[in-house]
Structures are given as C-alpha cells and as structure tokens.
Amino acid sequence: MDTPIENHPHLVKTVVVPAAGLGTRFLPATKTVPKELLPVVDTPGIELIADEAVKLGATRLAVVTSPSKQGILAHFNRFPALEETLIEEGKMDFLAKVVRSAEIINVTPVIQNKPLGLGHAVGLTEDVLDADESVVAVMLPDDLVLPCGIMNDMAAVRAEFGGSVLCAFEVSDDKVSDYGIFAVESTASDDVHRVTGMVEKPELADAPSRFAAAGRYLLDREIFAALKRITPGAGGELQLTDAIQLLIDEGHPVHILIHRGKRHDLGNPRGYIPACVDFGIRHPEYGPTLLRDIKAIIAEFEEE
Ligand code: G1P
Question: How far apart are CA 46 and CA 69, in angstroms?
Fold first, then answer.
C-alpha cells in the first residue's frame, strides 16, 4: 500500500533520478561500471542522491536506467550471500553499510532503451507517480549540491509561489554553454527569481543570464504534458529545458532558488576528483590521514 502524500513533509513522494547516460566523459571506467556507482570515498554517488531524497521526505526513487546499467538497481537490492558472509565474520559495521541502500528508500526501475535526452528520460516516469502526486521532483546524480537539502528549501519556495521551482547557481562566461540558462526577473527575495525563459546550452552571446540549472527540479505535474509536445533540441536530444520553456510560455509560474553553496560535478574526472577530496578530508575515519597525505602530494608536486 502506498503512503499517502499527506505523510510526506514536503509533498514529494517520488524523486526521479535519470541515470541512463553512457558516461562517455568517464571512459574507460564507465565501460562496464555505471558512472552513478563510482564511489565518493566509499559510497556510490547515487546513494548520496538517495540520502538527499530521504532528507526531502521522499519514499520512492524512480531510477531511469538503460538495459546495460542494471548494476545501479542491484545496488539498491539486498545481497544475501554477502550479508551472510559478513555476519559469519562478525563484520557488523560493513553489514550495516551493505544493507542501508536497500532499507532507506524504495527503488522503482524505469528503463530507457535509447539515450534520447533528459526530457525523454523524465517523460518515461509518468506512470510511476501516484494520482496524489502533483509535483515531479528530479535530481540529476552527476550534480552534488552542498550542503545537502536544497530541495527542502525549493519546496518552501513552491509552497509560496506555486508552479515549478528549480535550483540555479551562477556560472562564469566560459561555462554558460554547458548548462540550461535562465532569463529572470527579480522578486522581493535576493535568492528567488521568477523565470521568464530557459535555454539549453546557449552560446555566450545568446545567454540571457549567468544563472545555470543545477540538476535539482521541482516541476509541476503539467511537465509531462509539455514533454509530449517537445521536439529534439540542443544536441539533437529531447531536452527537459524545452518542456520548461513551454510551461513558461503557457503562463505556469516557474521560479529559481539561487544556490550559493558548493556544487560538485561527478560526471567527469575534473569534477569527480575534487568531490572525492572534499568528502575524503571530512570523512571521520579517513579524513585526518587523507588531509596529511594530500598536502604531502601537493607539496612534492610543487617542488618538482
Ligand atoms: C543537464 C541539463 C542542463 C543542466 C545540467 C546540470 O545537462 O540539461 O540544463 O544545467 O544538466 O548539470 P547535462 O549536464 O546532462 O548535459
């Protein structure tokens, strides 16, 4: 029996996690290992996303994967043979680590057979949502937005303004063509802007602002209808950005909450390695020695 929406503090029951990409920016590691399973210290990136969904009060993760990335789903299942071995060996700390991903949230798999774009991936999840869910929460697993919990703040913005709320952060000129970029009008709050347009990966000259989408979305359920009407956009893919632009055109309120904290991009080595260092030096067990060792590596490098 599904939990009713009233039992979810931020009225979000399901978080959609698009995880069907080929991970080309991370080859050869991602030849057989899904990039979402690469560890940040010892925990796969997608488990950190599951933690964020739990923090939001969600009880279901709709994970969109491709047929060749079933390892992602296995990570959220129990593993009886491994669990028995750990029990026999008395390794109860490790047992807890192995069991937790299967315990914290229910995972519903959604298969995307072809990488047709983020908009296509999100559109596939319509049937997973219950009738009482009015918002489609999306977390992109490449993006770590820190400190964890921005979606909770976005839910408060949605409660105030209605419609859809996205997370944005400011990027430099050389980065605008990597992101969805917003055209905005200010509101009474410095951190909340009303969105008047959104364009996917524009050239610098066409970028309406330096506010970029940060991979966290609370979208009105109307997004599914919009997703059925878009045609291939940037990169020849069905873009979520274009469906959001349709909602804006039709008068749906769309706002951004500006994130002024940290963000890591786990989707390529340039962003992933700093994330590992950042989490590593703060880790209760590994932190002190890692900090010392990393400092030594840098000092040695600088002397070379
Ligand atoms: C996607 C979105 C883009 C957003 C970005 C955030 O792009 O299409 O609008 O700014 O995630 O990471 P991707 O990085 O998947 O190409």
Answer: 13
DSSP class of residue 153 equals H
Q: Which of 122, 127, 124, 128 is nearest to 106 (CA)?
A: 128
Name the pLDDT band for 268 (thresholds 50, 70, 90). very high
Q: Half-sphere exposure of residue 86, counting CA atoms within 13 Å on the CB side?
A: 14
H or E element in which residue 287 lies: helix 287-303
Measure the CA–CA gap between 53 and 90, rounded to whole angstroms.
31
Render pLDDT for 91-131 as a digit per residue (tens, 0 to 9): 999 999 999 999 999 999 999 999 999 999 999 999 999 99
**Does the beta carbon of 213 sit less than 6 angstroms from any atom of ligand 1?**
yes
Six-digit token string for 247: 């909602």
User: Is the bond leading into 288 cis (omega within 30 degrees of zero)?
Assistant: no
Query: Is the beta carbon of 179 within 6 A of some atom in ligand 1?
Result: yes
